[in-house]
Every structure is written in C-alpha cells, then in structure tokens.
Design brief:
single chain; 292 residues; alpha+beta; five-stranded mixed beta sheet; globular
Length: 292
Amino acid sequence: MKQHEEVTFQTLADNEDVQIGYSDSDIMVVDSIQQFTEINIAHVSMNAIVICTDGKVQAQMNGIKMELHKNQIAIVPQNVTITDVMISPDFNLKGMFLTNRILRSFLNEKISIWNDMMYIHRQHIVTMDEDEILFYTHFYDMITLAIERGKENPYHTEIIQALLRSAILGLCGTMKWMLSNENHETHTTDSYFQRFLDLLHTNDVKRQTVESYASELCITPKYLTAVCKKNSGKTANEWITEHVLEDIRYYLKQTDLSVKQICDRLGFPNPSFFGKYVKDHFGMTPKEFRNS
C-alpha cells in the first residue's frame, strides 16, 4: 500500500509533528513541520503558502517538478497532489493553509493575479531578497505576538486575519511584479472565469459538459467558452479535459483503487468507456498506464 495522506485542517491538527500557531475554520498557521519524510504522497485540499526556513525539498506537484530552497515561498492552490517528496535532513517550513472562501475574501478582485499565477502560467515558487525576508519576518513576529497575547481580545480573530490578509496582499504584489517582469500578460480576470475555475477545483466529478458548467454559472456555453478563451487562451472544454486527466493520472499512479472504483469516483458511465477515454488521451489502457 502506498503511503498517502489527505492534507486537511484536521489531519494537520491531529499530527503531533506539526506545530500549529493559529487555527480557525478557514485558516491554519503552521510554525513547523518535521519528520516530513514519512509522507511521500499527499493530496492537499487547501490553498497553501509555505516558506522554506531551512534546507530544501524536491517534489512533484500534479506531475510538475518543484524544488524549494531556504527563503523561497511555494504557493500551492487547492486540490493538488504532491508526490515523490525528497527533503534534506535540516528541512523545515512555516506556512499557512487557507480555504478558498477566505482567500477570495482577502484578495477580492486581486484573485485574478492568483489565478493567473497558479492556473495560467503555473508559477509556484517565489524567491525573496533580504528586504522581503525582513518584511515577512516582521509580519510573522506581529502575528505571533497577536496570537500569544491577544486571546482575550474580543476581536482576536479579526486582528489575526487582518495581519494575514496584509501579508498575502504583499505577496500578491510580488506575484504581479513577477508576471510583468517576465513579460507575462496579466489579465483582469472576470468573475465568470474565476467562478468556473472554482467549480473545476472543487468538484469531485470534473468530467461534465461545458453546458453543465455554464448552467451552474447561469450563462450560455458559448459565452463560457469565449470567457475562457479570452482570459486564458484555452477553451472551457480544454480546461475540463486538463483537470480530468490530472485526476486520472493521480488515481491510477498514486492510489490502489481499482479501475472500477476510479471510474465511479470520476463520474464515468462504465469501465469500458473509461478505458477508451484513457486510451485516447494517454495512448494506453488504464492498467498499462498504471504500470508505466
């Protein structure tokens, strides 16, 4: 059996190797994670902003190789799979985990910068210079002080969230600068595209028609496709297919679920249809792909 963990607020809270600095229903601040080597496959169901404080870590995120060094930040969107984790003996991190609801409330219209960075340009590593490190160190010290001394304050949660929001906005500004500096066009992503991405990342069954997604958004399929094309260069159907294939890759490669169980979980009508879909997109049967 492969070692696999679903990383949620509850699993973090229950892990004695994780030092929790603060948590509420939407946010968890992690001061330290050690003995991380026992996890080699993790499905992270929350948005995560993680800074490597010592050492380094290598991993695959949805099949894309990532390497995080000291004083670098990894920005991880919700519902991704981390595999092939390799860490240095001195590795440690600090980070925060956030629900999509609180992230959107923190960023408001600036969520478009997050979406551009995460889903269109797929950049997940931010390297900080000494001034930026000092900036976030001061923020972290303020948050720690507020956590330790402000518990009796009736506005304790609001104070913590205001500090975290300020830090995330600062990071968002760095992300915008990175996109501009690397000649990536930044989009004023409209709300329909943002909501479509939200549906894709939160739905367990992603293989639905464009008409189905458009209906949930109360727009026409033609308009949804136009919105996706304008904001990302890809059609709605291309976005759907890409996310379905990521789920298939994860379940076949990283779990021991049977083909029938995967077929049912991903909303395919029967194993025969699922097998044809895998063959058409990966050039091999589900069994062959699993063993490749």
